[in-house]
Design brief:
429 residues; alpha+beta; Immunoglobulin-like; 4 domains; 45% helix
Length: 429
């Protein structure tokens, strides 16, 4: 072996150079495998386990290298004693046997410890993966269980039952759908969805009366539930029964009126006061802020098929019954407004009858003057004349003896005048 400082040939077993006196370092040659293993262990530790920090690991590997070096060096240093016995002992025993064997054994031990450390890290990784897989399996089971429980809860919830009802209705399984909707109603009677679904089941079977009763019966029990009223209005709109909406919403609670104010239509206004009696024919004007007004004159309730108001209504003599509704753009009507207007034209006080009261010896005829638009009725038996009495058609022969003649006029509206009375005594000469 040559001295690394001066190149002098050093005999085997010598622990220093005889030429330059430098110490011979008995250290194993550099092995790159050591650094590779060290790097792999550091990465594994830091990345997976976090067992040792970089500084801790450096100290760990440094200490091991140091122990390997110090062991060899210690023996070399120990062998470098000034006595010949020491040098010989170092050369023969420590240098040749102990130094080399210790260096090799130290490196071997270090390599063995690295391998053990690597295997330990691999075992920990495997255990961690196993735990992770187990945790994922447990999590998956919990998620599936939660989904199953959620589905079961939903299927038995109000919304779930209602949806089952609609599905059955779509398949035309009407009895099944009816059962589902009734079950939902019993579960939450205050909610309107199930009532709407049940009504649609009856509508699909052309049972409109039953469909309507679904809402009306519920409203009778829950008079302040705006959701039910709104659902019923929707039913009337869908089935083209808009004339029923104002009847439904008449005198509802304030909270219902507030919710459905768009369906509560004000009736039309009238230009004349129905409490007044008019002595001449009149023209009545109807007004509304809505899209249209419809009316009748025979006392019946109007609808959108009735006479549409376009110009003032002519009121004739007598009683005029006018009933009107206002209708908005969506076709929703108001409640009907009904008024009676009375027109009484002036009438003759009493008819003119000739001849006047007196005694007559010759045949004479009795005459009544009948104005245009009137009829005359009379009696000759002292009773009061009415429209049931004898109608005057022309001059009447005065009967013999005493006659009490009474007459009235009746206009075209049946109004009667006062009574004219004549007392006749006819005795032929």
């Amino acid at each position: 072996m040559k001295c690394r400082y001066c190149g002098h040939e050093i005999p085997e077993g010598m622990l220093y150079c005889e030429a330059c006196g430098k110490e011979v370092r008995i250290v194993p040659d550099y092995n790159p495998l050591d650094d590779m293993l060290t790097a792999q262990i550091k990465v594994s530790i830091n990345d997976e386990e976090g067992v040792l920090s970089d500084s801790d690991y450096d100290m760990f590997t440094g200490d091991m290298n140091a122990r390997g070096r110090n062991t060899g060096t210690g023996r070399n240093t120990g062998a470098r004693r000034n006595t010949n016995a020491g040098r010989n002992t170092g050369r023969n025993t420590a240098g040749r046997n102990t130094g080399r064997n210790t260096g090799r054994n130290t490196t071997g031990r270090m390599m063995s410890e690295k391998e053990q450390r690597r295997r330990q890290i691999e075992r920990r990784k495997a255990m961690k993966r196993k735990k992770r897989r187990k945790a994922l399996i447990i999590l998956a089971v919990l998620v599936v269980a939660a989904v199953v429980i959620g589905i079961v809860c939903y299927q038995n919830s109000y919304n779930g039952i209602v949806n089952k009802g609609y599905s059955a209705q779509k398949e035309k399984a009407y009895e099944k759908a009816e059962t589902y909707f009734k079950k939902a109603i019993s579960k939450k009677p205050e909610k309107a969805d199930a009532y709407t679904g049940l009504s649609k089941v009856y509508i699909a079977q052309d049972e409109l009366d039953k469909a309507e009763d679904v809402f009306l019966n519920a409203i009778d029990k829950q008079t302040k539930n705006p959701d039910l009223y709104e659902a019923c209005v929707g039913f009337y709109m869908d089935t083209d029964q808009k004339m029923q909406i104002p009847v439904l919403l008449e005198d509802v609670a304030d909270n219902v009126a507030e919710r459905l104010g768009g369906y509560i239509i004000d009736g039309p206004s009238f230009s004349l006061d129905d409490k007044e009696t008019f002595e001449e024919v009149q023209e009545l004007t109807l007004k509304s802020d809505e899209a249209a007004v419809y009316y009748t004159t025979d006392g019946s309730e109007p609808d959108t098929e009735s006479e549409k108001y376009k110009e003032p209504i002519h009121l004739e003599e007598g009683e005029n019954i006018i009933t009107a509704i206002a209708v908005n753009k969506e076709g929703v009507p108001s409640l009907p407004v009904k008024k009676t207007f009375t027109v009484e034209l002036p009438i003759e006080d009493a008819p003119a009858v000739s001849p006047s009261t007196g005694q007559y010896g010759t045949a004479t005829q009795i005459e009544i003057k009948v104005p245009d638009g009137y009829e005359a009725y009379y009696t000759m038996d002292r009773s009061e004349p009415t429209t049931a009495s004898t109608k005057y058609e022309g001059p009447i022969d005065m009967p013999e003896g005493e006659t009490i003649f009474k007459a009235i006029l009746v206009n075209g509206k049946g109004r009667t005048s006062g009574v004219t009375t004549r007392n006749y005594m006819y005795e032929p000469d």
